[in-house]
Amino acid sequence: xxxxxxxxxxxxxxxxxxxxxxxxxxxxxxxxxxxxxxxxxxxxxxxxxxxxxxxxxxxxxxxxxxxx
Length: 68
Fold this sequence. Notes:
Largest sheet: none
Order of helices and strands: HHHH
Number of helices: 4
Mean pLDDT: 88
Distance between the termini: 25 Å
Radius of gyration: 11 Å
Strand content: under 5%
Number of strands: 0
Helix content: 55-70%
Oligomer: single chain
Shape: globular
């Protein structure tokens, strides 16, 4: 398992982490979303919910880091 990146700082850091997680877990957790889905501050709860519901341990840890 790759090492976890440092904790994100600010909304830009969280959005970057969420975008990376979306791409990494696209087929496993976010298959139901449109191909042109955009990760924004407003869609972070969707990312967190998908990571928690369908992801592995690493995804769950990423979801915890995305919560304010």
